[in-house]
Design goal:
185 residues; alpha+beta; 10-stranded mixed β-sheet; 10 strands
Length: 185
């Protein structure tokens, strides 16, 4: 009986520690979400776990943010390197409308479309010691020593998930997004 108990404890410990090495294994595969333009033969209401950022293609975002009661759906993702707060950072823009290809570099540099209220979205600045996010057009900002969930930069592509229930702002500003973006050169 004692051998069986020892074996069970050893197995539990081995499987638990194997699951803790986040960056060494890929996320579990899940069924891709169907494109809204495709028609499915039958609509079946099922509860699915949240999709992983890996299911999106570069340039795509999924999710929403809420600013003062207004919910904005985000569909597009852009990334590039730029200077924020006096240091080189990775900048990620998640938007409700596409940014014209000829305007992406300038938008990463100084966000004229986001600040000019032409598009709405989230602006992330990822630094070594944490991250900062700004809601556009409201200009609400948060910073954190935490990084995004499932955050990964690989082969000039950045991917991640961010979830914030708005507890810092009494629910006025919340976000639940995932994205994959090619890093502009």
């Amino acid at each position: 009986m004692n051998r069986l108990l020892v074996c069970a404890l050893a197995f539990t410990f081995a499987t638990t520690t194997a699951g803790c090495s986040f960056f060494e294994r890929s996320p579990p595969r899940q069924t891709p979400v169907q494109n809204e333009n495709r028609q499915s033969p039958a609509k079946v209401e099922t509860t699915q776990p949240p999709a992983q950022a890996g299911e999106l293609q570069p340039g795509q975002a999924s999710g929403t943010y809420t600013a003062k009661g207004e919910v904005v759906e985000l569909k597009y993702a852009y990334a590039g390197r730029g200077v924020r707060f006096g240091s080189e950072s990775l900048i990620i823009l998640l938007t409700d409308k596409p940014i014209p290809s000829e305007a992406v570099a300038e938008e990463i540099k100084s966000t004229p479309l986001l600040e000019g209220d032409k598009i709405r979205g989230l602006e992330y600045v990822i630094e070594e010691n944490g991250m900062w996010v700004r809601f556009h057009p409201s200009q609400y900002q948060e910073s954190s020593s935490n990084k995004l969930k499932e955050y990964k930069v690989e082969n000039e592509t950045v991917r991640g998930v961010d979830e914030n229930d708005g507890s810092l702002s009494d629910g006025k500003y919340a976000r639940s997004v995932k994205f994959v973006a090619a890093i502009a050169k």
